C-alpha cells in the first residue's frame, strides 16, 4: 500500500511539474494590424506562481512600440485605473505603431492589498530589476517583464503613485543618462509635453553591469527611452491624478505621432534636477502640518517626532529649500526611513 501511495505521489508531482513547464512565458507579438490581443504570461518557481497580464494594441500602420506598465506596486491605484480607461478608449484603426500595456504587473500584491512588497517572497518588485530567471518569484517576474516587455520597447513608461503611507504630489521624471543623448533628449521632450506641473530629473551614474533595481532605470541603462509618472497618494484613487496620467499618456502618443488626440497647450513644467532625502533620526510618531507640493525654505521646521507616550524626541527641520515631492503621510515612522523628499533646481557651475 505504501508503495502505491509513493507511486501516486510521484505521478502527481510529475504532473504538476509538467503543468508548470507548459505555462505561457513568451508573448505572442505577431498579431494582425488594427487588432488587439489579451494574453497572460506566467512564471513559477514550483513554490509560487505569478501571472503577468498583457494587452497588445497593434495599429493599422507600423510605428514605435510604446510600453506602459502599471501596478508594479499593487497598492498604487491611480495608474491601474488610468490604464483601464486607456485600454478601453484606444482605437487600433487610428493607432500608428504598437501599444504594449501591462495593466497590473504585480497581481499578487494587488489582490492581496499589499503595500510595496510581494506577499509571496517579501520582496519589492521595483528593487529587483532586471530580475533573475532562477530567483524568487518577484525576481522571476522582473526578469519576465525585462525580457518580454522592456526589450521590445521603443519607449518605456512605468507609472506609479503614492502608496498607502505616501503623501505625494504629481510629477513626471526621467534619468539624465549622458551615455545615450538621443534617447535622453527624447525622454526630456516627452516628459516636458505630458502636462505634469513638475518634471524631476535624476542623475544617472550606473555602470552597464550594475543591477538597476528600478524598472525604468533598467530600461534607461539598456539605451531605451524611458520615463516614469508619479500621480496619486495615500493608497487612494484620486480622479484628478487618474486624469493627469491619462492626459500624459495621450500627450506622449501624440508627440510620438502614434495617435491623434485633442490636446491643449501644455504649460512648461517646473524642472527639479536635484533631490534631497530627509531621514528620520528616531522611531516614533511623526507630526507635520505640511503636505506634498508645499514649498519649504532651508531651516524651516517640518514637524516633530514623539515617542508612544507623546513626549517629543526629535524636531525635524528642512536641510534644503525646495518643493516637497513626497512625505510620510501617516503617523508611524522608523529610524532611518525617508520622512520626505525635497526636489529643487541646481544650476550647473
Task: Tell me briefly what this model is.
This protein has 349 residues and is α+β, with helices and mostly antiparallel strands.
Across the major sheet, the strand order is 1-2-4-3-7-11-9-10-12
CATH class of the largest domain: Alpha Beta
Helix content estimate: 10-25%
By CATH, the superfamily of the largest domain comes out as Zn peptidases
The number of distinct β-strands equals 20
Please give the CATH architecture of the largest domain.
3-Layer(aba) Sandwich
Count the helices. How many?
A: 7
Distance N to C terminus: 82 Å
Series of secondary-structure elements, N-terminal to C-terminal: HEEEHEHEEHEEEHEHEHEEEEEEEEE
Share in β-strands = 25-35%
Radius of gyration: 22 Å
Q: What does the largest sheet look like?
A: 9 strands, mixed
CATH topology of the largest domain: Aminopeptidase
Amino acid at each position: 500500500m505504501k508503495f502505491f501511495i509513493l507511486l501516486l505521489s510521484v505521478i502527481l508531482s510529475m504532473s504538476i511539474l509538467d503543468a508548470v513547464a507548459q505555462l505561457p512565458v513568451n508573448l505572442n507579438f505577431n498579431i494582425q494590424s488594427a487588432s488587439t490581443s489579451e494574453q497572460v504570461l506566467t512564471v513559477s518557481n514550483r513554490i509560487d506562481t505569478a501571472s503577468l497580464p498583457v494587452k497588445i494594441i497593434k495599429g493599422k500602420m507600423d510605428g514605435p512600440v510604446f510600453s506602459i506598465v502599471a501596478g508594479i506596486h499593487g497598492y498604487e491605484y491611480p495608474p491601474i485605473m488610468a490604464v483601464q480607461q486607456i485600454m478601453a478608449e484606444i482605437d487600433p484603426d487610428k493607432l500608428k505603431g504598437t501599444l504594449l500595456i501591462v495593466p497590473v504587473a504585480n497581481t499578487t500584491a494587488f489582490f492581496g492589498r499589499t503595500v510595496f512588497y510581494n506577499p509571496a517572497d517579501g520582496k519589492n518588485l521595483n528593487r529587483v530589476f532586471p530580475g533573475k530567471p532562477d530567483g524568487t518569484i518577484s525576481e522571476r517576474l522582473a526578469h519576465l517583464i525585462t525580457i518580454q516587455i522592456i526589450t521590445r520597447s521603443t519607449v518605456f513608461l512605468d507609472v506609479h503613485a503614492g502608496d498607502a503611507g505616501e503623501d505625494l504630489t504629481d510629477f513626471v521624471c526621467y534619468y539624465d543618462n549622458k551615455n545615450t543623448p538621443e534617447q535622453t533628449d527624447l525622454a526630456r521632450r516627452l516628459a516636458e509635453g505630458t502636462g505634469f506641473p513638475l518634471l524631476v530629473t535624476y542623475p544617472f551614474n550606473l555602470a552597464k553591469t550594475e543591477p538597476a533595481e528600478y524598472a525604468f532605470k533598467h530600461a534607461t541603462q539598456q539605451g531605451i527611452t524611458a520615463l516614469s509618472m508619479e500621480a496619486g497618494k495615500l493608497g487612494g484613487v484620486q480622479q484628478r491624478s487618474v486624469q493627469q496620467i491619462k492626459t500624459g499618456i495621450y500627450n506622449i502618443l501624440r508627440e510620438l505621432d502614434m495617435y491623434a488626440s485633442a490636446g491643449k497647450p501644455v504649460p512648461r513644467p517646473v524642472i527639479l534636477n536635484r533631490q534631497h532625502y530627509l531621514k528620520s533620526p528616531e522611531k516614533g510618531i511623526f507630526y507635520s502640518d505640511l503636505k506634498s507640493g508645499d514649498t519649504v525654505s532651508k531651516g524651516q521646521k517640518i514637524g516633530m517626532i514623539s515617542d508612544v507616550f507623546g513626549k517629543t524626541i526629535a524636531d525635524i527641520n528642512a536641510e534644503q529649500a525646495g518643493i516637497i515631492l513626497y512625505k510620510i503621510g501617516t503617523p508611524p515612522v522608523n529610524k532611518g526611513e525617508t520622512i520626505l523628499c525635497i526636489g529643487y533646481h541646481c544650476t550647473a557651475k
